[in-house]
Amino acid sequence: MDFLRPETLAEALELKAARPDAVPIAGGTDVMVELNFDHRRPAALLDLTRIPELREWSDGLRIGSGVPYVRIIDELGAQLPGLAMASRTVGSPQIRNRGTVGGNLGAASPAGDTHPVLLASDAVIEVASVRGTRMIPADEFYVGVKRNALEPDELIVAVHLAPAKGPQQFSKVGTRNAMVIAVCSFAISLFPEENRAGAAVGSAAPTPRRAVDAEEFLASTLDFASPKPLLDSVKREFGELVSRAASPIDDVRGSAAYRKHALAVMARRTLGWAWQELLGQKNGGGEHACA
Amino acid sequence: MTLTPAELTSAVSGGIGTSPQRPDGNLKVRGEFAYASDLWHEDMIWGATLRSPHPYARIVSVDLTEALKVPGVYAVLTHSDVPGRNQYGLEHKDQPVLAVDVVRYQGEPVALVGADHPETALRAMKKIVVAYDVLEPVVDMETAADSAPLHPGGNLVRHVPIRRGAQDLQADVVVSGRYEVGMQDQAFLGPESGLAVPAADGSVDLYIATQWLHVDRAQVASALGLPEEKVRLTLSGVGGAFGGREDLSMQVHACLLALHTGKPVKMVYNREESFYGHVHRHPAVLYYEHGADHTGKLVYVKARIYLDGGAYASSTPAVVANAATLGVGPYEVDNVTIDCYGLYTNNPPCGAMRGFGAVQAGFAYESQMDKLADALGMSPVDVRVRNAMTEGSVMPTGQVVDSAAPVAQLLKLVQDKPLPAGTSSDIRELPGGVSNTTHGEGVVRGVGYAVGIKNICFSEGYDDYSTARVRVSMVNGSLAAAVHTAACEVGQGLVTIMQQIVRTELGIERVTVLPMDTTIGNGGSTSASRQTYVTGGAVKAACAAVRSRLDGRVDIGSEVIDETVEWRHRATEALDPVTGQGNAHVQYGFAAHRAVVDVDVELGLVRVVALDCAQDVGRALNPQAVVGQIQGGSAQGLGLAVMEEIQTSGGKVRNPSFTDYLIPTVLDMPPMSIDVLELADPHAPYGIRGVGEPPTISSTPAIVAAIRAATGLALTRVPVRPEHLTGT
Prior knowledge:
Largest sheet of chain B: 7 strands, mixed
Structural class of chain A: alpha+beta
CATH architecture of the domain at 168-281 in chain A: 2-Layer Sandwich
CATH superfamily of the domain at 168-281 in chain A: CO dehydrogenase flavoprotein, C-terminal domain
Structural class of chain B: alpha/beta
Mean pLDDT of chain B: 97
Mean pLDDT of chain A: 95
Strand content of chain A: 15-25%
Number of helices of chain A: 11
Strand order of the largest sheet of chain A: 4-5-10-6-7
Radius of gyration of chain A: 19 Å
Low-confidence stretches of chain A: 286-291
Strand order of the largest sheet of chain B: 3-5-1-12-9-10-11
Low-confidence stretches of chain B: 1-10
Strand content of chain B: 25-35%
Largest sheet of chain A: 5 strands, antiparallel
CATH topology of the domain at 168-281 in chain A: Enolase-like, domain 1
CATH class of the largest domain in chain B: Alpha Beta
Distance between the termini of chain A: 53 Å
Distance between the termini of chain B: 77 Å
Oligomer: heterodimer
Number of domains of chain B: 3
Order of helices and strands of chain A: EHEHEEEHHHHHEEHEEEEEEEHHH
């Protein structure tokens, strides 16, 4: 196995063009497990850890694909609460020190923790090759089980994600209270100025996916500009629509029926928390509510 | 001046009753401890094991041609290369070193490769062509006895009946139930590892992480066709055991490859292979019926217990005896009818794991006691106290419990502990934790109690002993001692205990623990909570022999006092094969738990808020180690209650990884309040009572009882899954 260590992005793109079979590696929290378990035998690894610009974020926000979860939690928690919440559920502290959103996107596992947040928050993935740069909206990025929209010569360079325009929530069910892979997960992002919300499910379909009907239901039902307390029936309908957006399977981590049930509960609850926070902001001068 | 032992004790620190620092503690925390997987030898090659992908199949042919052509391969071996007896086993020699014409479980070893690099070995292994004729596996323990026989004698490994008192009684209140226990794994963190080094005379040295050097040696020598003295074992760094290292894994395989190639051979399983490389806790189906009078006094208990032993016997016979003899729990019952069956199936082989049959029975009888309390309108503690055994009580086997049995006291101790504050508003303390599934919605608190009983040391007439050698000489002008045994330190702290005993007995502070190996006599198994009792007893006896020669001297010049003692606990008896009567056990240990849980009843997620324990340990030789054992045992019981299960389908393991076989983290296990009673057992050295296993037994049912209290659900199976709590 060749181990390629580019110093610059340009060099990395050249290498990837020359060796499209090279597997990019940043934190290694996913790739190394696959290698150790012999699930994967790439002819080459492309080490991205020496490329400074992948490890930086800038206002806007443009987050380099190699920024580890721990920095998202510590440095971007206020601007991206949803992504920080999801990052906080990734693995153990050691894993969060190494693992990156870029790696989550590269693996494109339906169970990846950050995907629902990226979908619900209108993230755009910046990918590059020697041929140029492409901006791929998150909901066009996941194309199949552990498959993404990358061409063989492309690398994930950054994630573009605007600072939260409204309350965001992320919730994940696992059968342990920490360090657990998702049985299913859910993210919601409110965009009060646009009178809409984003909603997405994880680990409940072949790919992470938006709950489009649920989003449309909220946009048509709720008044984001002058929010009133949520009716229980709205929460329930929203939960049902989120649940219906999923097409989960029975597997060793949980039953399909449980996943659909849990998604409805999480959707209901997270909508309630996000809405409560919005109510607090509109009525109570930015007071942070925690229902 | 001549000092008595008592005076000497006060003169040295680090004796019994204190908690000196463990020699391996800091090294382990810093990642510097040398485990068996760190073994290295110049010029060594690597061994790898080709395993069956099928739970049950005939082997039609094995073609090694292409594998042997891989550059760097030194040997590819099959059963025909086993020079001795190709069958081994702890109790029945029914398991082939390498499969001959049939495989009986997924993961059964079929062939071995020795190569210059693990990668080479892996590549060669993939070129071995095995043709299988796949057969329909036997996977249901309840019907296994009537299914096609997997072994010549049929599929019943052992049936233990218990018949005591009247067999057909009526009672005011009768409760019955069917309970299931899933397959738990020991999940030790250091996977199976060993290094075999051949010698010019055809003998072999094996450095290995194991629980019992001498029984390993006997099985290895038999398979290699060598006299035992030509097989020398030395204990390597053991990363946890919990019963999973009692059976052989690669011991014979590494030695075979070493003797065949003339090279040192290292073998290390990875995590996935480890799940196939050791036995698990027996899954169980248990049918119980309890009859009581209107005051709550038990009139009778009837039980029918099935334990799935999987493809090979391992220690199933002894596990069956435990589940049967301890099947009513720590309660006085005059009329008992129990039938306990251990079966062969094509599921993964099951054998020893902490609690050893008492865990499965404990979940069922404690669930029954709660059901009885409900039926009687009594509190769970009251119904238990009403029936609690005491010193002098008679077991269902007829054996009189002849030392402390403070069952009621243990229950009251945990009952009287302060309850934790109400449900937290910090998500880190709620079900789901930072996964942010609830801010209090759907969360209901429940409290549950359980108490358990475990036999300590080996039972049923087994000649259970240990050998200890203590040597005293002058070092730099003062007395120093060395202690040598073959008893395995697997992380439980025996090295510290042995030092403490020598310090107390001889008043010598400097005590060296020599490497554990087979150059000394048998130390017995590190299991059945027995090493402090039996090897501790042997070290104490060896010290007494040294002390009489020392005769009070503090300067012995160039003399070396060297004494070796073989020490055994009092004898036990076999069980009557028809009535199950007999003084089968050496000692009984008891622990009680009170669990407090918060359950998110909508999502089916559980957080154990408190898991307090009271246990009688006879005497705490090392109080910190005792508490550590209770915490660890309780955590393992928590795992079985809410998450730990090897899931199988058609005999195949579905979750051989730590991604999907979950064990509790620090955020799942609450801090514990622990009461340690020291009610000395007059029959045991220092009065000690085995510590490691009892807390594993009561932890699980206490947690499930608490979840029942929160949800009102029957919950007859462990581990409890979110699906069980949400009806999905």
